[in-house]
Amino acid sequence: MDTTKFVGEKIKILREEESISVEQLAQRSSLTIEQIERIENNIDIPSLAPLIKIARVLGVRLGTLLDDQDEAGPVVCRSQEAKETISFSNNAIQSRRHMEYRALSKSKADRHMEPFMIDVAPTKDSDFILSSHEGEEFIMVMEGIMEISYGNTTYMLEEGDSIYYDSIVPHHVHAFEGQAAKILAVIYTPV
């Protein structure tokens, strides 16, 4: 499945079901009309912060935009099932996709957390733009070294280290000195 296409179409369908215009969605999410149109037309898939803002305006959980499953009971994700990835753009124009997300509970209905295994690609970028959104994030480094910019502080995390933070504080997550890494991330966003 082309996840980029799915996300854009899902946003448009939900927006139209709620009788919200593109202009209203842009205003309520603090995004531009052009950004909303590019997302809905499958030109861009936003980073998590704008996607979370869109989900809040539409009154749905983040996962609603990322999947179409609806399992009420426990959901088991076998390692071979977690191969499909989602790429969110970061805020650096020259490096639009630096993380590959593998959803670990995409078929669980009414979940409040979004767990992902994330492959962080090496990048030469060093001028990261911090972003914020409501909620909390938990990150555990599985491989490599991660650098977490959080407000005015930078945290270095090595394999086995973890961090739990309020995501309303401007932050950016990236691999240290352009190396590849792998992390387990759990994102909570209130609806």
Shape: globular
Query: Can you tell me the residue ranges where pLDDT is under 50 for at least 5 consecutive residues?
Result: 89-96
Order of helices and strands: HHHHHEEEEEEEEE
In total, the number of strands is 9
Quote the beta fraction.
Answer: 25-35%
How many H/I helices?
5
User: What structural class do you assign from the helix and strand content?
Assistant: alpha+beta
Question: Mind telling me the C-alpha Rg?
Answer: 16 Å
Q: What does the main sheet amount to?
A: 6 strands, antiparallel
Cα separation of the termini: 26 Å
* Average pLDDT rating: 81
User: Residue share in helices?
Assistant: 10-25%
Physical arrangement of strands within the biggest beta sheet: 1-2-3-9-4-7
